Amino acid sequence: MILEMKVPSPGESIKEVEIATWLVKDGDYVEKDQAIAEVDSDKATLELPAEASGIITLKAEEGDAVAVGAVVCLIDTAAAKPSGSAPAPAAAAPVAEAPKAAPAPVAAAPAATYASGTPSPAARKILDEKNIAPTTVTGTGKDGRITKDDAVNAVPSMGTPTGGSRGSERTKLSMLRRKVAERLVAAKNETAMLTTFNEVNMTPINLIRNQYKDEFKAKHAGVGLGYMSFFTKAVTRALKLYPDVNSMMDGDYKIAYDFCDISIAVSGPKGLMVPVVRNAENLTFRGVEADIKRLAIRARDGQITVDDMTGGTFTITNGGVFGSMLSTPIINPPQSGILGMHNIIERPIAVNGKVEIHPMMYVALSYDHRIIDGRESVGFLVAVKEALENPMELLLDNNPKRAFEL
Fold first, then answer.
1. Residue 326 neighbours by CB distance under 10 Å
2. Fewer CB within 10 Å, N or C, the chain?
3. 195-403 — its CATH code?
4. Nearest residue to 222 via CA among 276, 294, 281, 320
5. What is the C-alpha separation between 35 and 23, in angstroms, rounded?
6. 267, β-bridge pairs
7. Active-site annotation, residues
8. Mean pLDDT of 393-401
9. Cβ neighbour number for residue 51 with a 10 Å cutoff
10. What are phi and psi of 124, to 5 degrees?
11. Residue 96 has pLDDT above 60, yes or no
12. Mean pLDDT of 64-70
């Protein structure tokens, strides 16, 4: 029996996918549920499992765009599973080696003379006008003299030759990467995007983490107490204070949300992924950290789904893990705001009239000015800063044991 395998629908809005990589070869025997291909949609990279065991015949090439529901391969379910590997081919009988022909004589290189590499008067004038050194030009005239034609055809060097590789490679972007590029350009062109900045003294959070992180990790089965839970809780608090930042444009209408689905940018093998932590305003610190860890592992292992990344009312991205000190993050449409975290650097600051050194982080809020005014954007970022610099009162309700469920 020949089974036709068709492209399943990864999501409601997805009409086609691209064959990113075949994990098997034409004619291979595959087992049921074995991953046979990776397919890219405009939202995620997904594995395609075999629907039955048998010999596979591929019907699409890597890089092909295939409509949802189209046949991509055939599986002959009646084919028997091959036993063992094919025997190695017998060694061929030795063949008498034919006598080698005598090497052709090599013409001797012309001896260098005073004329070698010397430009004629006309050639020298042209080389001087082009600012080309005669030593970089190979002469074709008698005894290696540089002729006028040599000078005319000479091209100025773009740098000192190093003898290193100067190759290049042209590869097609994946459907996911092309869609990300399209969305980023659209965000720049279709929104009135502005960015406001502030800085956060991370000393209070560091003191709390140093005191409770070991107990937190031991209590919650390896889930660590990181910075992301503090930032996520600070953001959900600020979104309640400034609801315009938690809204979106829809034509001539504004859609406001009474929940906080926070998109968290994570780096995966296929590039940047933005899975969503649902109803983050209702999660505990442990809940936020556990959900972020779960989504990050799924992204790393290539198991992230379209549903994991659908929706989201606000985004947090952390370029600081890669060493970024300051950036202007691009809005994740159709959302209206994105918070950028950066690296933590010890810097001198004024505290109560005295200079002290503290771990400081720059934070950036990019927002759509069509729906968010300057007062709301600046107020939102200040509210995030206040919560991060006073976490005991504003995020932990002066009871870290209870907030951390210790």
1. 14
2. N
3. 3.30.559.10
4. 294
5. 7
6. 272
7. 369, 373
8. 95
9. 18
10. -60, -40
11. no
12. 88
In our burial notation (b when 16+ CB lie closer than 10 A, e otherwise), range 366-382 reads bbbeebbeeebbbbbbb
Domain spans, the chain: 2-76, 195-403
**Long-range contacts of 325-328, Cβ-Cβ distance < 8 Å, separation of 24 or more:** 325/362, 326/197, 326/362, 326/364, 327/364, 328/195, 328/364, 328/366
**How far apart (Å, rounded) are the C-alpha atoms in residues 376 and 384?**
12
CA distance 174 to 40: 7
Rounded distance, CA 295 to CA 272, Å?
13
According to DSSP H, which parts of 117-174 are helical?
A: 121-130, 148-153
Identify the top-confidence range among 14-23, 123-132, 139-148, 248-257: 248-257
Q: Please compute the mean of the pLDDT values over residues 347-355 and round it to a whole number.
A: 95
What's the CATH class of domain 2-76? mainly beta
Say which residue, 203 or 110, is predicted with more confidence: 203
What number of other Cβ atoms are within 10 A of residue 180's Cβ? 18
**Cα diameter, the chain:** 95
For residue 232 the two structure tokens come to: 């996520």
